[in-house]
Amino acid sequence: MLAMDAMVKPAANAAVAADAAKPKVVARNVNVYYGEKHALKDVNVDIPERSVMAFIGPSGCGKSTFLRCINRMNDTIPIARVTGKIEIDDLDIYDKSLDVVQLRARVGMVFQKPNPFPKSIYENVAYGPRIHGMSRSKADLDEIVTSSLKRAGLFEEVKDRLSDSGTSLSGGQQQRLCIARAIAVGPEVILMDEPCSALDPIATARIEELIDELRQNFTIIIVTHSMQQAARVSQRTAFFHLGTLVEEGPTETVFTTPHDRRTQDYITGRFG
Amino acid sequence: MTDVTLSGIRSIDPATDAAKARVKARYRAEARFRFYGLAAIGITAIFLVVVLTDIVMKGYPAFTQNVLQMKVYLDAAEIDPKGTRDVAEIRAADYQAIVRNALRAEFPDAQDRAARRQLDSILSSGASDYLRNRVVADPSLIGQTITVPVLMSSDGDLYFKGIGTKVVQTPGRGVATPSGTSGEIEIRSTADDFATTLALVKQTLTTQARNDAREAERLQGFAAKAEARRSELETQLVAARATNDAARIATLEPQLAGASDQANSLSARVKELRTEVAELEQRYQNATAPEPITDHMPSLLIAINGGVVKVADVSNDGIKGTTMVPLTSDQPAAAGSWQIVNYETPEASRRLNDRVVTWLNVLKDKGMVQSQFNWRFFSSGDSREPELAGIRGALVGSALTLLVTLVLCLPLGVAGAIYLEEFAPKTWWTEIIEVNINNLAAVPSIVFGLLGLAVFLNFFGLPRSAPVVGGLVLALLVLPTIIIASRAALRAVPPSIKEAALGVGASHQQAIFHHVLPLAMPGIMTGTIIGMAHALGETAPLLMIGMVAFIVETPTAITDASTVLPVQIFLWSDLPEIGFQARTAAAIMVLLGFLFIMNGTAIVLRKRFERRW
To answer: Under a CB-based contact definition with an 8 Å cutoff, are residues A44 and A28 in contact?
Structure first.
């Protein structure tokens, strides 16, 4: 518990500011079924703008499922069924008239395993802007790629080899490339599904730094198995258990004075 | 925790005999299995080597072709009698006659009809093609004497490839004196040069005598039986006559007549054979008496004084025979300057008689026979003459057919695979389609041929024997293979790539066409090439749609009648001429070559673009 206090510190100040902001993402009574299985039960949560929200919980608790609901990635699973309401800026993302492709441009995603396209670094970043017609000229596109790579903290490392394959980078670089790729299309929300679970501690530290920087411009939702990571990077934390959202609140509160017994047990390492 | 004793958990003691035996048994089983695997591979490899060696050995001669380099006088009076130098006129001239006459000029003594016909049989019916083309291309040659390669007939060609008879020459040891220079002559030698030959001939006499004696023995048995039947019938007839049984007499009389005829003829034959045996034995006893050489024995010839004599009668120190090539003089030839020539295959078991073989040898000695690479095999269509037949028509037919197949199969197969793999809703309906596509891959190809016959030819009325129909039928055949391979390739692309594309806001279709499909392409190409190789080797369905016809012309369009390589092989393999056997094997080599190239390309593609995630 002593260690925990120290970890919470860097995020503590920002958490107060985030609380005041209007929620960016609002979920009401979200249920997800995989065929017969009821994977997510009545989730209600408000996610504030320009902050980091961490989802924690034991394996199979539904946190990734919920994350994938926010950019409708669950649509790709034929047996998945989602009920309830998720709004981003008061816009119901499950509305029939909404185009899922546009939604995914607004809600970027970074995956557990770095998954750069097996193309050049440049192409990896340029792909999104290109299909969305975001650039008018080659120079324009170069500009987007450069700035995205810069913001992902990768530009200095790869500026001389933009035409090298994205898969030739190290794991941590690949993940930052994926982040650059996600922010290149100018999303408002970035979903991160355990982005550091395949990385070593140094690469993890760099990603965490990056997340902290990106928080200035983006709403970030991160799923993590590492409670230390949640404590380090997030302003708010939500604890999921067996498909239900058990507790949600400022990270500091959740880690120091959890209301629920299960949260307490989980963060103190009694299960999970 | 570790110091808690676990009850009920048993441990293995590796020191017990049972445990040691188990280990041994395991090693034995592994060694046994390794041996079985090795044996299986070994046997397969042996079969493969045997098959390939056999094909190469048989097919190799077809890649060379023997031609006669002949000096030909291009008589203006014959080629262009009007002197107009009109191309049509020049083309229509009888070049075959010119070539024939040039060959006859080499053998002035071959004057009778039979000899001329035999001489002509050395030349191919397409012997003058080259000459005609050359003269048509350059009419200024008319009036000159030029040397042109003249194609030999298949028999002549095969003779020089060693498929005819083995020729053995031994120099004469004595001084040989011919009695004349042409016609029926005698040659006497001062040594017993022909003793061994005579002994061999006598040897065959005993063999023949033994066979005849055995035959006589066998017939004797039948004769005795026939005799017994006759006497039985005679007794019955006497009995019938005694009782005056008219009906019985009427049936017995013709039977008796038949039986006695049979008995008589059999006894006569037996007698004949026995005389023959006695005669043969007498000839054998008389070791020095001259013997005739029949066409069932190896032919014996004497090359002397620039001529060749075919031996009809042989004795210890001399022969009688007819000249095949006239002698230049009847002067005695010194020992070693004349040759005894043996054609080991008896004349009756060869396609070329002694005379033609002798001519061929003379032509070879004159240095006129030349072996060339057989370009014609690749540049001409089918023919009834082995030496003129080539695979060009079949190759072009195969190419056109495969083109139609590829154009149909690749887009349809890939589109079908993408739809089924990525877009189709997983309902029982798509399930049925998938199962049936897998089943279609196992349908015997002849069934597709019948389908093509019924649908494309009979219902849609497309042209028979045409590559377009062949391509359609093969497309049906290959489509399941391509769909299955493409689906496997699409499935092998990790879903993370698609998710990544979807994550940056690519539509489902964009994700597939921009990312999944390019990554699956090597796999799809591999499947397609293997499918195409399958189609290239397919014969049965094409037989059904009439691509089995004898077609000389090389097709120029997909609606022209044509044949394909495997069908050409099938057609040739059916022909009795020895020349076609080599061509069949050579065509198989070409087909295998293409298959190796295609499969090799597939392997290279797979290796080159193989990705690991």
So the answer is: yes
